[in-house]
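SEQUENCE AND FOLD
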Amino acid sequence: MSQHPQNTRAIRVADLSARRPVSFDLAPDAAEMARITADLGLLGLRKLRLRGSLTAEGRADWLLRADLGATVIQPCVVTLDPVQTRIDEPVIRRFSPDAALETPEPGVEIEIPEDDTLEPLGTEIDLWRVMVEALSLALPPYPRSDGAELGQLTVAEEGVTPMQDEETKPFAALSSLRDKLGKPDKD
């Protein structure tokens, strides 16, 4: 048997039962979707939903397993035309009091933990933050329209041959030098 808080943005840890998983189904309304769209710099956002459960893991830790679904519209990096992408991603987070984040002093190097699912456990688990963070991480970094390609811009002073991409490769200069010197005559 599981507890079912419907469309709850955050769940208080004190209200969780270690014996029963807590199911959740978070689907923002139109105003909230508009705010997320603006915050993430999207052209459009539809069908955003985070559905999953929280289960106890050990004495004080909580495991969040969920599915994130959304349809996003972003500008093409080449043409700026709208590009629609469907996102369906699994989301896993482990909330633990042992993962408390300490604020490092400026200039001090910190080691990033290997487990990127580990989150600090406070008094509540913010499902809204998990949803928006998972969505922002799942967005295509360089959305591109079908057939959109970057052109090549070549600029040089008058009378100078523009440099090509091939000439920037490590052995291009040696190849050019060899061609200038020509092949030695065999006598």
About this structure: The chain is about 15% helix and 30% strand. Helices lie at 30-39, 127-138, 172-181.
